[in-house]
Amino acid sequence: MVDVSFANLLSVDDARARVLGSVEPLATEEVSLHDALGLVTATEVHAPHPLPRFDNSAMDGYAVIAEDTSGAGEYSPVELEVVGEVRAGGSDEVVVEPGTAARIMTGAPLPPGADAIVIVEVTEEKDGKVLVKASAGKGQHVRPAGDDLDEGEVLVPAGLELGPGELALLGSMGMTPVEVRRGPRVALLVTGDELVDPEEEPGPGQIRDSNQLALLALLERAGARPVLSERVPDRREAVVDAFRRAAESADLVVSSGGVAVGKYDFVKDVVEELGHIELWRVAMQPGKPVVLGSVKGVAFLGLPGNPVSVHVGFEQFVRPAIRRMRGCSSLLRPTLDATLTETVTKRPGRLHFVRVRLANRDGEWFATPTGPQGSHIQSSLVDCHGVARFEREGAKLDEGRRVTVELWRLP
Ligand code: AMP
Ligand code: MG
Asked: Is the pTM of the predicted complex or chain greater than 0.85?
């Protein structure tokens, strides 16, 4: 039976669509390639010239006219006159005419006249002559201009996070600075009177604050720039002050805790006072209460306080929002289909995100739940590769069933 209390809950996908609809890509800026790792291209970048720029040698050897080497072999070498040498970076005018060859190094420009390279291993040079002991086909070991990219071709699409490969290619083409978007500045507020620092010994009823560590790490991994991170006591004035400060310096405010219906859950009230609020209960487990809104005109996402809810809510809503603000073309985690190794059950009504560990056996992926799945079970996040979607209407997923896993990290 579907629990009626879940019937009106917003689906995860609808909630995410509302989150994504409430944020915009940030302004673009020009950044030197030296500082662009992890930033996102704002425009498609085109090749200003062919790559490589000139025909060049792929090997160390001799630049020759292919026809001159026809019939050459171990016992029937062809003798050519060595007319000079071209090195990588060299610009000497050496011209290869019939009957001649030029010594050439990898990456050196192919001299005019030559149309092939014979590798040094099949040659013998002596007294200004070279014996070529293998025939070369036209174009052999030559990297023609434009072999990699023609002028005008797309180097890097818009919306791509720049990694080492993209930086190298853009560098090869002299495309620095590059137009990118940085990650949003995020202000993080972690609410709860019960919280103490990880370094502290908790008193009676207190617990160590783990959400701040988790969220700072998640934010960094998502490409955001945390600009403020505060722990806020459950007092209305303190919450108001903290939200005011947060909104001053950030593009996005994220909070944990204080969004449920407890007497000391002030976040909703305060956000309503300073801005606006859309509060929902999302049909998911863990992490049902999620708040979307704005504070002093700055986008706001409020997650519940339970540590696993924080993680799951971050993955479902905050990370996609951050990626949208960064201008990423892909907003969601990739998924992988895997075979479940244990039967799991639930009440229908909410989509469960089952934390799983993945293993590959003989080319097939297997997903094993990381243990008990309560929203307070922090150990379920250790060595966790992602979450298997256990759809809203389902009640039982049998061992051996295929499930879709949202990949948080690679196994
Ligand atoms: P709340 O959403 O504020 O009602 O918190 C729900 C649960 O999460 C409570 O058991 C809190 O003690 C716990 N919790 C809240 N904030 C944190 C935090 N920063 N670190 C660890 N646990 C927390
Ligand atoms: Mg609380």
From this structure: yes
